[in-house]
Amino acid sequence: MSLNNVSTHYISEKVAKVRWLPEQLQQSERFITGSWDMDRNFVRLWRLQSNQYAMSDASVANVEHTPRCMDKVAIEGDVTGMEFVDKDTLVVSCSDGHLSLFNVQRAVEEDQMQRKVRSERLHCFQRSLEPAPCTDLSVYGTDIATVGEDGCVNIVSANNIRQVKRTIEADSMALFAVNFISHQQLVAANRMGLIRMLDARVASEAQPKITFMVACKDDKSSNFVSSLTTHPMQQHVLLCGSEEGSITVWDLRNLNYPASYISAHSSAINEIGFHRKDPSKLFTAAEGGELWMWPENKVLACDNQKDGSSAWLSGDRVKSLVGVEGVLTNIRKGINSFDVHGSRLVCGGDTEAVYLIDDLV
Amino acid sequence: ELGDALAMRCGNTLTGVFVPGSKIALSAYRHVKHNSRDAPTETADQDPVLIYMAQESTLFDEPVLRSILAEANATFGTLQQLGLKAEQAEYVNISRAYRSIVRACLEKLEHEKKSPEVQTDEPRLQRFTEAMIVFYAAECLWHLFEILYIQQKQMVVPQLLEWARFHFPQTEERATDLVLMGEEASESDDYWTTLKAIIRLGGVDITRAILSQNRKASQPVFKAAEAILKGMPVYMDGYSLQKFNSQWEYWHVDAERKIQSSIFASEPELEQILLLVTGNNEQWDAACKEAQDWYEYLPGYLLYTKPTCKPYELRIAAANWLNRWSLLRPDKHLTSMSRMIIQLMERDVKLFIYEAQKMSDTHWFSTHLIDLIYHCGMLKGYFDQNNIDLPALRHSIVYEYGSYLMTSHNLWQLGIDYLDCCKQEGRAAIELLLPRISMRSERQATKLINLAKQRGLVTVEQEICKVLSRRSFDGERYGNALEWAIRSKDVLLVTSVADFILKHYSRTGNLHCPDTIASVGGRMFMSPRLVFLSKYFEFYEFYRNRDFLAASELLVNLLDSKITPDYFWPSLLIDTMPLLESKDPKIFYKETVAILHHIETELVPIIERDVDKYGNHHTETVFKDYRVENIDEILNLMRLACARNLARAMIIENTILTD
User: What is the pTM assigned to this prediction?
Assistant: First the structure.
């Protein structure tokens, strides 16, 4: 059991999304938060500062870090999605249906952040012409895909987000999650738990009708997909977090039935994702206030990467190949987002606080 | 000061109505009496009728203060989990947690206040100052409350000293400076005044440290003073009370004797300090005259006159001291904070809580404090004696706070925790308030539904789903509407959405949201109409994919199924036509008979009934199928088609093939 060093910092805003700034060689010291459901919503840039008083005892390995807000930019609605396109550029989707690109300048003393571009309105309801909230986004290279409550998928290029490369009218119902699988293909999931495979090169009418549904405990109740992710090394392994708190794993080469079904949390999984550098660890954050880590049991895992199989595709055997550990529990309010960089994890949610965990084993 | 034109005409009066969300709606008003004419006034239509929404502006508009709410909410949650039977030490920890939240916030406020954006904004600066005053008082009072009523310690003097020193920090800062200055300290102008002040606050050790660095420290006078100060017995936990008291008495008498024998006459300042230490009235009166507030030097005085003071003895001591103060400083009025301190020391908890509710912090202080009192149970006896129902008091205060949070500033996720503790009333409040939170996105709605689900509030869940279904329906997003209707588990709503889709199809041949209907799955069984829609859609798909045999089978099943809505019979029967008339037989003998049967028993009566009701043009009002102008015409065509198919089927089926 690892003793995780958790520090809590109240920031007076409900956190919708949080992401570390990308760093290649060193541990990232900066992260960005996007707020939601506030009178005024902000995208904020934070930097970890070492606590002065902790330095006195050199033998203590844990140095306390306190985040300090370096800069903030107001945004028109709730932040619903946030990803880095490159190490200085951030794309943020908003509940007013627009995308914005932000640029971060790192400095020794005061970092800065500005909004560079705001897209046209990407999502709107056809009848009332009111803006539809953009609910999620996914990035692949320089392509950004966004999905919204109007059931459309928009693909834009990061180099020019004011121009839409393609719009796919995918669904008649709100879409909740999207994920690129390859440069040309992406999956989008709707509120009914239906996941579609879409081709980015092709117009709406010519889209292949490949759909599959997320598994559910009870046939008679509704189960939406709340988050999607693919294995970083094996893009055909798709993991879906759902409303009932279960994880359904699909092998995209065989969509006849799900590869595995794990009933994990007792509330909706708000975010699911692998450690960017260590794909043997999966993390899930739930609405009930829990954040769990799922490390693959390295002893039992054999060298099966070549034939494309993975511990996650093992059906009933998943429980023996993958363990589960509570990183944060009993927060009592939803954790909306997390991000892991190296050995540090940052997450935030509706308690209006960010939680920092150092020395994640 | 609204300057509303309409109001001005009739004496500038306004009327108001409370609106959910802690707001008031104001509009112009003119009093109507029994003899006023019930007619438009002469000036009607000349001024716009305006409604103004007024909302209380609270401290929590300020982001820095908002974090107090969130942090306190977390501590509140922890306390609820501890329950009523935890260790006393745990409650003390909770009390300290609350205090540290306030202290951290005060620091943040201090820091923010200096920033240029606040300095230039007058009203905001004002708010900051007010907030700091309020929360500073809150922390000070909470600290005193913790010392007197939550901690178990019998001897309160050491903690009271700590409390006083924390709240009058300038003296201690100055004293520390003097210590660091070493020998040169004795040159300072304020050397003796600082020493006197620090002794009055009970800082014996630091006084000794400063005196030992004095130039004249080696002189016998100073050495004698040091001996007295060093010799003062200090109570430690575990000492026998009697033994300590006798030791203290001995020391006290000895010190007084030494002073009276004028050993210290050569150093009048030093003598004054020693007089203070022995509780000399004259010196302490002088101290009163110089104190900033009445309670500043009370703990010090207690240290030197009654070091083993117990909480109940404190009451009398405080009353005496207060008397002294009022006599010496008649001009000094008591601030409300001072009054509250008096109430605490005199064990007038009831009045204290009452005053606490008047603090302008939207009841943060009183709510969390009463909740802590309720849980730690230390004052149970007091409340019983005074006939106060503590659980009910706590319930009502927490309920008010919770409802307030739920209706303002997007604080509903914090407020709901407080209402959860209020049993039935809280639950009812949640049921009413949760659906009224404005839903700006579906993701937010799912969070609200989750909260309702956690508490088993099925009606709230349903209400939210129904509202969203209706919204989508009005926006012509029928797939979305159908899904929300299914989630709401309201059979009537689902039926009406399905009806709409079917009617639209029969009128135009366009089926809305096929993808949604296809994925309904097991949930279709909640409404017969939905089952019909689902199955009809299956038929539709079979037909389009040219799987005619499967289509026919399904169609006949549908005809037999008894779940076909009246308005859809023509469409359904018209659907059989191409299958009946196709080149190769698709529908068998028995099924054809069934079709005929349905035509005669279902469609004909419906047509006849409508003719009775609406006359010969009934098809324009009720039946519309996009394929046919007039339903009556098809009857004959259908009968013919059936007959032909029947003939064909009979021959084929009854033919025995011979080689």
Answer: 0.86
